[in-house]
C-alpha cells in the first residue's frame, strides 16, 4: 500500500493515498469554516440564505451541470464535485449570491483549501 503524509500542516501521520487527511484531521477545516460562518452575529441573513429554496435549487443545478470538480479538472484530475463555492464571497458581495456565473463546483478538499486561505473579514 502506498502511503503519504496527512495534508494538515505539521501532521506527520502516514495514510493511504486514497485520503488527504488522517482520521484526526479529516474534518478539521470543515469545523473551522463552520465555526466562523455560523457563530457570528452579523451573519444571520447570510446563514438564512444557505437554507433558502432558491440557493438549494441553484446549488443542485450547478452540481448537475458540473459533476466534476472544476479546479481538479484544470490539473487533469477527475474528482466528483460535492460543494458549490461562490467565487466572489457572499459575505462581502451579497448581490452575487444567486449569480450562476459566480459559482464553482468543487470537491470537498479543493473547497476546504480555498476557505483555509480565509477571505472572511476580521472579527
Automatic annotation (TrEMBL):
GO MF terms, alphabetically ordered: endonuclease activity
Pfam (any one): HNH
Residue span, HNH nuclease domain: 57-112
Record key words, sorted: Endonuclease, Hydrolase, Nuclease
Gene3D superfamilies from the UniProt entry: 1.10.30.50
Family affiliation: Belongs to the HNH nuclease family.
Name by which UniProt lists this protein: Putative HNH nuclease YajD
